[in-house]
Each structure stands twice: as C-alpha cells, then as structure tokens.
Backbone:
C-alpha cells in the first residue's frame, strides 16, 4: 500500500494511447451495457480536476474500462488508486498501467454493486461525519445501465454512513452519458451534507419518490395514490396532500425538495398510525386482483360445462 506521506509529482511514463490500447486488446464498447470509452486525455484530465486537489489522496474508481480516467487520476499524484472492473476484457490494459505506476494502482476484478470498499483503505483516513470530508474520493464514468442502481445504493450508504461513507463524507465525482453514440459528458460533483434535507428512513423516502415518479408525466397525486390500498386510495391521498400542503396538479418534476420533505413527513405520520401501511405494495394488490379475477372466470367456465 502506498505511503500517505508527502509525495513528489508523479507522471506516468510514455504509454500506448487509449485508442492503441483498444486496438491492441481488440476492445469494443458493449452497447447493451451502454459503455462509452473516453479517449481524449484532455477531457479525462478536466473531469479529474473537478474532484479538486487529489495529491496524496486515496481514490476509488468505478468502472475504469480501458483506463482513460485512470491515467488522469494517476497523473494527479494520488497516494493510491483502487479500481474495480467487472469486465475482464479491460484487465490487461489496466495491468499495463499498474506496471507503469508501481505501488500506486490496485486492480480488483469485481462488481461495484457488491464490492466492500469500506475495507479497502486505511482506518486512519476515517473522519467524523461533522468534520471536513476525508481524503478519500470516488471517481467514475458510469454507464447508463448501472448509474441508477449504483447511485441509489450510495444514497442509502450515505444515510447509514457505511460503504464508501464509512470514512466520513466521501466526495464523488461522476460522469453520466445518455447514449454510446454521444460524446457529451455531464460531470457531477457530490459532497454529502452533514444533516439530510429529509430526516426520514431512506427506504421510506425512496418509496415516496419512486411512487411519485412512476407516472412522471401525470399529476403527482396519481403516483402518490399508489402508496395506499385501492379501497382507501382517494381519501388517504387527499389527506396526505392536505397535510403536506402540496398542489395535487403539480407534476413530479415540479416538486421541490421541500415538497418531498413534507410528503415524506406526512407519509411517515400515516405509517405510524397504520403499522401495516408501509408494507403495502400496489403491484401485489394488482396481481392478487388479477388472479382472483382469473379464478372467478375459471369457476364460471367449470359451472357452465
């Protein structure tokens, strides 16, 4: 493991370009995985600079692929870079980078959704949640197919202060891309708040938000109604909206964080009143109703024979 003391400026020795790596190892972006290779090192340098000063930092890169961002991170004089890559096609190219940066790059062949990063870096890096962020960073070029489940997982980790956030308020610098054919990259830098905007359990907040956005083009009352059994849906949805002081004709994208806070607080109040409410799943009710209808139809057919 690399030492955490003062390090001199590090630069990788001359290496094949990313295009040459792709050609050498016959790599191709998998469209079904929404993979997109970042080939321009000027672009990857710019992305990495968004993370701030990485000198002597410990960095966790998710989905490095052929290693474009990986090179830029190594050139930022980090103490150690850990990369987790699921696709074995990229391992030889990453190993070439590891050989060029002895003691700097650690490669794990694994899945970022299950990898235990909280065990990956020294305990001495951990900070209290209220302190400044630790010298640990997450950087990644996220394919579209993994970005949503990974972000949700990390948001839950933030709420529980575990996973990457066992070290404290670990900062994340992530790129998002819509399609393989598009080269425009959106870069977002996250720093967890010391206090959440919505002080409710993550699973409750997730359930409210998911239900609202499942009908994203309709009025918000449509999705909120799915929080409640059909027999009480109209009355309970109206009560929730009244408690939260939310206009039922607002669309999901028009709701603010303040709106969601009020809705989550109101839903929590209703769940406290009815302990069975949180376990309700409208899809289960729909499926059960469908099966009951099929059973009734089968009964009628058998009596007519």
Residues:
């Amino acid at each position: 493991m690399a030492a955490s003391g003062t390090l001199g400026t590090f630069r990788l020795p001359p290496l094949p370009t990313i295009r040459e790596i792709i050609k050498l190892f016959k790599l191709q972006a998998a469209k079904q995985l929404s993979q997109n290779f970042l080939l321009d090192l000027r672009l990857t340098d710019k992305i990495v600079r968004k993370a701030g000063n990485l000198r002597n930092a410990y960095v966790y890169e998710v989905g490095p692929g052929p290693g474009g961002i990986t090179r830029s991170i190594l050139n930022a004089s980090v103490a150690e870079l850990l990369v987790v890559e699921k696709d074995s096609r990229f391992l030889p190219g990453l190993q070439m980078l590891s050989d060029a940066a002895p003691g700097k790059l650690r490669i794990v062949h694994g899945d970022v959704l299950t990898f235990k990063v909280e065990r990956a870096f020294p305990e001495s890096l951990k900070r209290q949640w209220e302190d400044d962020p630790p010298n640990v960073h997450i950087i990644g070029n996220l394919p579209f197919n993994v970005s949503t489940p990974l972000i949700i997982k990390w948001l839950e980790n933030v709420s529980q202060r575990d996973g990457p956030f066992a070290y404290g308020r670990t900062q994340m610098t992530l790129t998002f891309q819509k399609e393989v054919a598009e080269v425009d990259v959106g870069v977002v830098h996250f720093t967890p708040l010391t206090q959440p905007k919505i002080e409710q359990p993550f699973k409750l907040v997730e359930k409210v938000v998911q239900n609202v956005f499942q009908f994203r083009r309709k009025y918000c009352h449509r999705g909120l109604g799915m929080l409640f059994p059909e027999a009480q849906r109209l009355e309970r949805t109206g009560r929730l909206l009244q408690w939260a002081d939310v206009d039922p004709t607002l669309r999901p994208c028009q709701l603010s964080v303040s709106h969601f806070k009020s809705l989550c607080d109101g839903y929590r109040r209703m769940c406290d009143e009815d302990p069975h409410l949180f376990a309700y799943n409208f899809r289960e009710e729909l499926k059960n109703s469908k099966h009951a209808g099929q059973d009734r139809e089968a009964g009628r057919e058998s009596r007519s024979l």
About this structure: The two ends are 77 Å apart (CA to CA).
